[in-house]
Specification:
The complex is a heterodimer.
Chain A: E1 4-5, E2 10-14, E3 19-25, E4 32-38, E5 45-51, E6 56-59, E7 62-67, E8 72-77, E9 86-93, E10 103-105, E11 109-114
Parallel strand pairs in A: 2-11
Antiparallel strand pairs in A: 1-3, 3-8, 4-5, 4-9, 6-7, 7-8, 9-10, 9-11
Chain B: E1 5-7, E2 10-13, E3 19-24, E4 31-37, E5 44-50, E6 53-56, E7 65-68, E8 75-79, E9 88-95, E10 104-105, E11 109-113
Parallel strand pairs in B: 2-11
Antiparallel strand pairs in B: 1-3, 3-8, 4-5, 4-9, 5-6, 7-8, 9-10, 9-11
The chains are: A mainly beta, B mainly beta.
Amino acid sequence: DQQVKQNSPSLSVQEGRISILNCDYTNSMFDYFLWYKKYPAEGPTFLISISSIKDKNEDGRFTVFLNKSAKHLSLHIVPSQPGDSAVYFCAAPDGGSSNTGKLIFGQGTTLQVKP
Amino acid sequence: GAGVSQSPRYKVAKRGQDVALRCDPISGHVSLFWYQQALGQGPEFLTYFQNEAQLDKSGLPSDRFFAERPEGSVSTLKIQRTQQEDSAVYLCASSLVLAFNEQFFGPGTRLTVL
């Protein structure tokens, strides 16, 4: 049972435009979400997070939106840059924000930003 | 660098061989996690240590998988009698305290079982 789902395996956008990466979850107990970015041959690196008490969190060019009723979150990158080309993973701590640190990841979306 | 390191970076094993994968966490980090990432999938949790204590091993797929962290620093993931379905990237992550948003990942070990 996939509790965190990223249904789009890949996304291609033009440099300077907006990239929108989507993530759905099934477990209503999840109350904290994270986005990780992964370059080839490297480990994932933390990008941005959001608590369920918020519906938006912004950090520079990156904004995450959370729609709890729809169990959906999205990552917006504006403007997109070629260096943003990577695999993006959505993740949630199993057991919520008070858990042991065990993260449940989505399948990932490969973003390609074309110059 | 002061990041998480893993060795070897690549390992090819014949089916039935035993393998050992090493993780050197960031110095002073209390928590250490192992994840398995199959091709085209996201990382999946295997096990978690706090110092030398293995507090959660619920993700280990079978009793062929064993992890240890005897001195609360370096950790080793051992897989006995490897099978083709064990082929994956094995990621190690560490964190200073028990804070999931501060997990720092190593580059992973890519295991291929022939």
